[in-house]
């Protein structure tokens, strides 16, 4: 193995370790947020179920199903072909994005924050989730 290959593999390994570490940190932040909202922390580990749980304590579960089904249908329609189906898929994905922004706003409000924190959750989500999880903020319920 030449030195370039070894350097490339070392770099990829370092990035992989950093990504795994960051993911674990995010799960811990979600765990803390769930515990603040009187939900079992283990739900933070399970993909999709963690999002369902977040919608449950910040908004409602019907919104989760709209986002999930809309994301699947919109994604399929976008890839189908050009024309009306593709345009419809794009429109559905735009609606899903709006629902996700509303969900971030509801999460911020459930912990007593306003629009500024919502903007932070949108643009710097991992950092603001850590702030939400490890700060002294208390869960005040859906707003």
UniProtKB/TrEMBL annotation:
<feature type="transmembrane region" description="Helical">
    <location>
        <begin position="83"/>
        <end position="102"/>
    </location>
</feature>
<keyword id="KW-0472">Membrane</keyword>
<protein>
    <submittedName>
        <fullName>DUF5684 domain-containing protein</fullName>
    </submittedName>
</protein>
<feature type="transmembrane region" description="Helical">
    <location>
        <begin position="6"/>
        <end position="25"/>
    </location>
</feature>
<feature type="transmembrane region" description="Helical">
    <location>
        <begin position="57"/>
        <end position="77"/>
    </location>
</feature>
<keyword id="KW-1133">Transmembrane helix</keyword>
<keyword id="KW-0812">Transmembrane</keyword>
<dbReference type="Pfam" id="PF18936">
    <property type="entry name" value="DUF5684"/>
</dbReference>
<feature type="transmembrane region" description="Helical">
    <location>
        <begin position="114"/>
        <end position="134"/>
    </location>
</feature>
<dbReference type="InterPro" id="IPR043739">
    <property type="entry name" value="DUF5684"/>
</dbReference>
